[in-house]
């Protein structure tokens, strides 16, 4: 079921609830063999990551990037993977019986809102310090972290009790997330975070983080599955890397090119 009781009371509480599902995931203990990426894999993966980041900064929405960057069978592979498809990156209500088209938009909305929020914050504060603001659970402080238009929109909402039919709750979630993303996109257009000194400082901090050898996502890594997985045969090489800000890309060969098998706005502790 969709849980609406987890949204704290108050305007900022609801909207932060939309994006504060970004809790750390525990990497599954699975039969994976680590390998070393080749020079060509590293080069191509970085090129994909750079182009993906650039296009996402243009669109502020993952949806238009699906056909451009993702594997052709994404809906039936990465999106429905037993791990990633059930993680907080998707977290679709199992009893809602979403169509593939609806499931895809559910996923891209969650991703895009988290991304837009991070971009918004990156232009205003150190992302390394963000956690202490969120952990304080101070509604006034949380409201101050959100665009005024988003807070006003939150105040106008009639929050469901959670007892409504699941399809009604799904439609409420879709409509509020679409409007939340639209407001964030407008805010980022009016006040581009990229031009602020805070954003540049966050980029510098991310570069150091990504270059840390202990970061399992920062540098291009590869794992080889010993069994068939979500549309890919045993022996498939899954490459992963991290792009700003703290987005994880998992890449596989699709034809003769590396394409995105899954993009995660929430990745295991890095």
Note down, in words, how this protein is organized.
The protein is α+β, with helices and mostly antiparallel strands and 270 residues long. The protein has one domain. Helices cover 43% and strands 12% of the residues. The chain is built from 9 helices and 5 strands. Strands 1-2-3-4-5 form a 5-stranded antiparallel beta sheet, covered by helices on one side. β4 and β5 form a beta hairpin. The radius of gyration is 19 Å and the shape is globular. The N terminus is likely disordered.
Task: Give the gist of this structure.
The protein is of the alpha+beta class and 270 residues long. It has 9 helices and 5 strands.
Report the mean per-residue pLDDT as an integer.
Answer: 84
Terminus-to-terminus distance? 30 Å
Count the domains: 1
Write the H/E string, N to C: HEHHHHHHHHEEEE
The number of E-state strands comes to 5
Q: Sheet bearing the most strands, described?
A: 5 strands, antiparallel
C-alpha Rg (nearest Å): 19 Å
* Contiguous runs where pLDDT drops below 50 for at least 5 residues: 1-31
Defining key terms:
270 residues, alpha+beta, five-stranded antiparallel beta sheet, disordered N terminus
